[in-house]
Automatic annotation (TrEMBL):
Transmembrane segments: none annotated. The keyword Signal applies. Residues 30-233 form the WxL domain. Keywords: Signal. It comes from Vagococcus allomyrinae. This is WxL domain-containing protein. Residues 43-79 are annotated as: Disordered. Residues 56-67 have a biased composition (Pro residues). It comes from the Bacteria.
Length: 235
């Protein structure tokens, strides 16, 4: 806040007349006036902008936000509580190898973004589950494959005064639902990202475990993550 200081200079005039000095004194006015300064807010249900996951203070995030996922421009969701962005993870083409193998993601800064502009402070919970890694018709499957997200960092814009949601590492070893972010009461207001940054083309914070003997050559294995956002921290 810019503070403005006003200095009032009081002057004393001495008037001489036939050797007699007269002091001119200003009359002091003692008045006050109170004004009502008013603001009220409503929930914002518009589509929300995407935060730069590397530097949330950047007002002009790169486009595309993830070069490994160039066609992903966000979910386009509208409402006062939204999932604004969810990543598509790319592992590329790998050679078959003996033994169980862990493959790292090509994405350098995959992230998920949630915005809460309800203005109620009741909190929220982000969860996710995953389908099986399989080909298009489901006839081929990576049995026992596990997708892991770890060492996520929760970020928001620099001047957000809300408390942060709490993030959890997750290993999708079944099709069960797992907690990703939990915002307790009065936390998680505004926009938040959970980013799993790592080395470009070799991000060890996002890994896929493939069991020996599960993969066939030339098959495009794909899994879908279903993200879900509840309007309280304990749905």
């Amino acid at each position: 806040m810019k503070k403005v200081t006003l200095l009032t200079v009081l002057s004393l005039a001495l008037l001489a007349n036939l050797g007699l000095a007269t002091i001119a004194q200003a009359e002091v006015a003692n008045t006050t006036k109170t004004e009502k300064n008013h603001v009220i807010f409503e929930a914002n249900t518009d589509e929300k902008p995407i935060i730069d996951p590397v530097d949330p203070s950047n007002p002009n995030p790169p486009d595309p936000i993830d070069p490994t996922d160039p066609d992903n421009h966000g979910t386009g969701n509208t409402g006062a509580l939204t999932i604004d962005y969810a990543p598509n993870i790319e592992f590329g083409t790998k050679k078959l190898a003996s033994g169980d193998q862990k493959y790292t993601a090509l994405n350098e800064n995959p992230f998920v973004q949630v915005t809460d502009l309800r203005g109620t402070g009741v909190g929220w919970k982000l969860t996710a589950n995953i389908s099986k890694f399989a080909n298009a018709d489901g006839s081929k499957e990576l049995k026992g494959a596990v997708l892991s997200f770890k060492n996520g960092v929760v970020k928001t814009r620099p001047n957000n005064v809300s408390g942060a949601p709490v993030a959890s590492d997750v290993s999708f070893d079944t099709q069960e639902t797992y907690s990703i972010l939990i915002a307790e009461k009065d936390n998680g207001k505004g926009s938040w990202v959970d980013v799993f940054s790592g080395e470009k083309d070799n991000n060890s914070n996002v890994e896929l475990l493939v069991l020996e003997g599960s993969a066939d050559v030339g098959v495009n294995y794909t899994a879908t993550i279903n993200w879900s956002l509840a309007d309280t921290p304990t749905p």
